[in-house]
Automatic annotation (TrEMBL):
Organism field: Streptomyces cyaneochromogenes
Annotated protein name in UniProt: protein-serine/threonine phosphatase
Family matches, as PROSITE patterns: PAS (PS50112)
Source superkingdom: Bacteria
PANTHER family attached to this UniProt entry: STAGE II SPORULATION PROTEIN E (PTHR43156:SF2), STAGE II SPORULATION PROTEIN E-RELATED (PTHR43156)
Length: 665
């Protein structure tokens, strides 16, 4: 039968599946891909025509000029119509040509008879009106990206094309229909339909439409109630009085229903029914494409959110907030990232970076870099050493990958901030008195470009200073002028009323809004804001000790006296033990002078520094060994311990949790 799908080499179109009117479709080369039974009867066609060039298989289409008209319509992309005397039986046919994404749709109408001239004129007027509007709709659907875009496009054209008051989309989920988009129907009605127990799938108009794979037209409430008496309340509750249910099919698979509703009774003319039928495929293809985009978009951003910190830590040395915004097209996951990493002794590392490019591979590299930064920072690597290892990691990925990165390590006990960059824009720094500037950073190359030593810069920051770390997507804007964007960011931060106390979440949101304007950022954008806090001098105690075995006893006394003054006498015994073991380790295996420091914060921190670069390691002492158990004891007593390099040697630190951090304050 003529409505069978075309041979495998000629795909059957998903655009047109009419059930009335004589319609024939071709692909872009003129090969016949579909014709329905009315076309078969009217034109005397057979199944052998499928897959063949129309005007070669049926010479009448060449002699009547149809081939030329099709070529012109394909070139201009505009519909056209004309009448021809069909040589086969001398009938007068009105032929309308509609360029569609898959090729050409030909709509045939027999206008033979006494009134053929009048009918031809009326058909021309109607076809011209609908043709122009359907081309506009087709073009708008082709531009729709998301499912919401498709809903909005159909809604915008529903009144003009059909006089409909409302449009709703329902997507099929097994034997249920879920609301996908709605315009013109009250939210109360949609919620009621979603919440009510649905009738059997084959006993509601939307379900029947999908089962039969053909439009359902209901012209009045009486007709609706007569056909579906078990749903007699729908016309009253919805406030609608006529409906067109269109099946949405892709590759002969039903994906949902589009419903046009009218606030008054409406008789659907044959022309309207044909037009609705044509729209089924157009809307279905656009919606299927949009839903694929929506699903990919959702997965991309779930991946992006999974690779970024879900919650920034609450730390004694800084208050932070951050935002990430995908590029305006939102099509792919990006490589921008940020992190806030707690370090020993209340220090903190603020990190932001940008892997060049978009896509899953770039996102994977971003995840690797963020993990590597955290791991190296936890191991006590200084920023310049950390960047050296990061550069090796990116270089091993190949010549076509590189990344920029900025790391700021802030120490609240000294108010010193050490910054290292790898080709990344410098942070904006705003002092509490309003002084603002870009940090003067060394000219280091991006990661993955060259194996060079990375230089650092150290700044002293007043308490309450504001740091803004960002990626280039935030400041480049549509013009791509990085310098102008950085200057604008600096000006807006300088206008912050009180940098030392302003709400960072509010400030972050206003900066993103102001810098993006009415449009989305053309590239991924990340912004990390941090406000510094200094440790109170009363919470720091420090002593210089000689390289002498007696230093362990002196250290125990200093610890006992200081913890008593802080009201932490219950930790005196364990802290004395830790301090004496660490100082004993320096005397036996390192070299002085020795510095003992206690910090009272959210934990009690005990530090012992020396001039040796040899890092301690836990030994597995045998039962007969007389020493080698000191660090094992430290690890058993302290909640956390570790070591890091300093400018003059190394520092071994321990932490003990405070049940009441404010005790003794």
């Amino acid at each position: 039968m003529s409505t069978h799908p075309a041979p495998p080499e000629v795909p059957a179109p998903g655009v047109l599946q009419p059930r009335s009117g004589a319609v024939l479709t071709t692909d872009r080369t003129g090969r016949v891909t579909f014709f329905n039974r009315p076309a078969e009867r009217l034109l005397g066609l057979s199944d052998e025509l499928l897959g063949r060039v129309l005007w070669d298989a049926v010479p009448h289409f060449r002699t009547t000029g149809v081939n030329v008209a099709c070529q012109q319509a394909t070139t201009t992309g505009k519909p056209t119509g004309f009448s021809v005397d069909w040589p086969r039986d001398q009938r007068l046919l009105r032929i309308q040509l509609f360029p569609v994404p898959t090729g050409m749709a030909l709509w045939f109408t027999d206008v033979t008879g006494r009134q053929r001239r009048a009918e031809e004129t009326a058909a021309e007027n109607t076809a011209a009106k609908y043709a122009e509007r359907i081309v506009e709709l087709t073009q708008a659907l082709a531009m729709a990206v998301t499912g919401l875009d498709v809903v909005n496009v159909v809604e915008d054209h529903a009144q003009e094309l059909f006089g409909a008051d409302a449009v709703s989309f329902w997507c099929r989920d097994e034997e249920h229909l879920d609301s996908f988009g709605n315009a013109g129907n009250s939210p109360e009605f949609v919620n009621r339909m979603m919440g009510a127990l649905p009738p059997p799938f084959d006993q509601c108009p939307a379900g029947q439409t999908l089962i039969e794979r053909a439009p359902t037209f209901i012209s009045s409430p009486a007709e609706y109630i007569g056909r579906y008496p078990h749903m007699a309340d729908v016309p009253t509750v919805s406030g609608k009085q006529a409906w067109a249910f269109l099946p949405l099919l892709t590759s002969d698979r039903p994906i949902g229903v589009c419903i046009f509703s009218y606030g008054r009774p409406h008789e659907f003319t044959p022309e309207e029914r044909n037009l609705f039928t044509v729209l089924c495929g157009l809307i279905a293809q656009a919606l299927a494409r949009a839903r694929l985009y929506d699903a990919e978009h959702r997965r991309s951003h779930e991946l992006q959110r999974g690779l970024l910190p879900r919650v920034l830590p609450s730390l004694p040395g800084v208050t932070t907030t951050a935002r990430y915004l995908p590029a305006g097209d939102g099509a792919e996951v990006g490589g921008d990232w940020y992190d806030v990493i707690p370090l020993p002794s209340d220090r903190v590392a603020l990190v932001i970076g940008d892997v060049m490019g978009h896509g899953l591979r770039e996102a994977a590299i971003m995840g690797q870099l963020r993990t590597a930064v955290r791991t190296l920072a936890d191991l006590g690597q200084a920023p310049d050493e950390l960047f050296y290892h990061l550069n090796s990691l990116v270089a091993d990925l190949g010549d076509d990958h590189f990344a920029t990165c900025l790391c700021a390590v802030y120490d609240p006990t000294s108010r010193l901030c050490t910054l290292t960059t790898a080709g990344h824009p410098p942070p904006v720094i705003v002092h509490p008195d309003g002084t603002h500037y870009f940090a003067d950073l060394p000219d280091n190359p991006p990661l993955g470009i060259a194996a060079l030593p990375y230089e650092t810069t150290t700044l002293e920051l007043p308490e309450g200073s504001l740091l803004a770390l960002y990626t280039d997507g935030l400041v480049q804007g549509p013009s791509g002028d990085l310098d102008a964007g950085m200057a604008e960011l600096s000006r807006r931060l300088a206008r912050t009323p009180d940098p030392a106390s302003t709400d960072l979440d509010t400030l972050c949101g206003s900066l993103l809004t102001d810098l993006s304007g009415a449009s989305r950022f053309p590239d991924d954008a990340a912004l990390l804001l941090a406000r510094t806090r200094a440790s109170a001098p009363r919470d720091i105690a420090c002593w210089q000790l000689p390289e002498d075995p007696k230093s362990a006893g002196q250290a125990r006394k200093h610890v006992r006296d200081q913890l008593t003054a802080w009201g932490l006498g219950e930790l005196a015994v364990t802290t004395e033990l830790l301090a004496s073991e660490l100082i004993g380790n320096v005397i036996r295996h390192a070299r002085g002078p020795i510095t003992l420091r206690l910090l009272r914060s959210r934990a009690l921190i005990c530090e012992v520094s020396d001039r040796s670069l040899t890092m301690p390691r836990i030994r597995h002492a045998a039962d007969t060994d007389e020493d080698g158990r000191g660090l094992q004891l430290v690890a058993a007593v302290a909640d956390r311990w570790g070591a890091r390099y300093t400018e003059s040697g190394k520092c071994i630190w321990t932490e003990q949790s405070l049940t009441d951090p404010d005790a003794g304050v």
